[in-house]
Amino acid sequence: MILSKILGDGEFLNMDLINVSDFLELSIRFGFNLLVSLIITRGLYYSNTKRKDYFFSYLMIGIIVFLLCFLLNSVKLQLGFALGLFAIFGILRYRTNPMPIREMTYLFIVIGISVINALSNKKISYAELLFTNLGIVVVVWLFEKVFFLRHLAEKEIVYEKIELIKPEKRAELIADLEERTGIKIQKIEIGKIDFLRDSARLIIYYYLSDINAADNATNSYSNDDE
Question: Is the Cβ–Cβ distance between 32 and 98 less than 8 Å?
Answer without folding.
Answer: no
